[in-house]
Amino acid sequence: MSITHPHAPTTSPAPDPLVWTENLSVRLGGRLVLSGVTMAVNPGEVVTLIGPNGAGKTTLARAVLGLVRPSDGRVTRRPGLRVGYMPQKLTVDATLPLTVRRFLTLWRPTTPERITTALEEAGVTRLADAAVQTLSGGEMQRVLLARALLSDPDLLVLDEPDQAVDVHGQAELFARIEHVRRHRRCGILLVSHDLHTVMARTDRVICLNGHVCCHGRPEDVSRHPEYHALFGRHAAELAVYLHHHDHAHDPERGVVSGQDGGCCHG
Ligand SMILES: Nc1ncnc2c1ncn2[C@@H]1O[C@H](COP(=O)(O)OP(=O)(O)OP(=O)(O)O)[C@@H](O)[C@H]1O
């Protein structure tokens, strides 16, 4: 992965990324939500976006998928790239009778065998004939993971896959995601608020707050004073977000000043 920040030194791009953004800005509802984001995800790599509520994590994930249009800059996907997307939430009509198996056929043509394989990989084979409306939050997350796997993705985009999942379930879910990565050798772009998990299970971290504040390997970022300034002293345990560092933001989250030209890099 390579990242640059408006004030950061430019790093050389990896040879063959799955997807990359260059100086990406996004306006939504007339407001600048992302500003000058340059990043990439490489094959076999887990890149995690962290940041406070409203920082633009979902917007960046959706821009990477081509679901949100840049107002400036570029998003480039490798030609023929297959993506699997697990959105933060997906609402199902409570009155619609729908089994999990049928639910998984709604987006693309598939086969019973592929559905069985995807459910196995997501660890929810037992739910194949359950009604989607009866699933718990954590079970639904697993089904959405199976749905994302059905496209046989080169790139998996997982937006808070651990939400509504209990502590044991989270460990198991991330073990499954790790298995998927190793088995399929796909790249993974993850959005998470669980800093503990992020630091333990990610190759690269991007701290986002409308722009890239801080990025690098977890072990480097977690030791960096700017990371602690950004996330507070409980950073390893709690998603307590403080955004005090060496530059200021204008009302649209752009950077307006800096002392040493950036946050942290690793
Ligand atoms: N369609 C839209 N129109 C206008 N503003 C939007 C739209 N979608 C998102 N926003 C705003 O863009 C900002 C970034 O939203 P986004 O969902 O990307 O943040 P996030 O970092 O994923 O937040 P969270 O951690 O709460 O999920 C928010 O202030 C949000 O209100």
From TrEMBL:
Entry keyword annotation includes Zinc: yes
BP-aspect Gene Ontology terms: response to zinc ion; zinc ion transport
Molecular function per GO: ATP binding; ATP hydrolysis activity
Database matches in InterPro entries: AAA+_ATPase (IPR003593), ABC_transporter-like_ATP-bd (IPR003439), ABC_transporter-like_CS (IPR017871), Metal_Ion_Import_ABC (IPR050153), P-loop_NTPase (IPR027417)
Keyword Repressor recorded: no
Keywords from the UniProt entry: ATP-binding, Cell membrane, Ion transport, Membrane, Nucleotide-binding, Translocase, Transport, Zinc, Zinc transport
Domain ABC transporter: 19-234
Highest taxon in the source lineage: Bacteria
PANTHER family tied to this protein: METAL TRANSPORT SYSTEM ATP-BINDING PROTEIN TM_0124-RELATED, ZINC IMPORT ATP-BINDING PROTEIN ZNUC
Protein name in UniProt: Zinc ABC transporter ATP-binding protein ZnuC
Gene that encodes it: znuC
